[in-house]
Amino acid sequence: MTDLTQCVLNPVVSSEGFDPLGVAIHRGSTIVFKDAAAYAARGERGHQGYSYGLYGTPTTRTLEAKLTALEEGAWTFLAPSGQAANILAILPFIAAGDHLLMVDSVYPPMRDFAQTDLRRLGVEVDYFDPLDAEDVAARIRPTTRMVWCESPGSTTMEVIDLPRIAEIAHAHGALVGLDNTWATPLNYKPLRHGADIVTEALTKFVSGHSDVLMGSLTIADERLIASIRAQMGRFGIGVSPDDASLVLRGFETLGVRLRHSERVALEFARRLAAHPLVDQVLHPALETSPGHAIWKRDFLGSSGVFSIVFNKTVSDRVSAALDAFRLFAIGASWGGTRSLVAPMPVARHRSVTPWTRPDVVLRLSIGLEDEAELWADIERFLQALEQLPG
Ligand SMILES: *Cc1c(COP(=O)(O)O)cnc(C)c1O
Question: Is 213 in the pocket of ligand 1 (CB under 6 A)?
Answer without folding.
Answer: yes
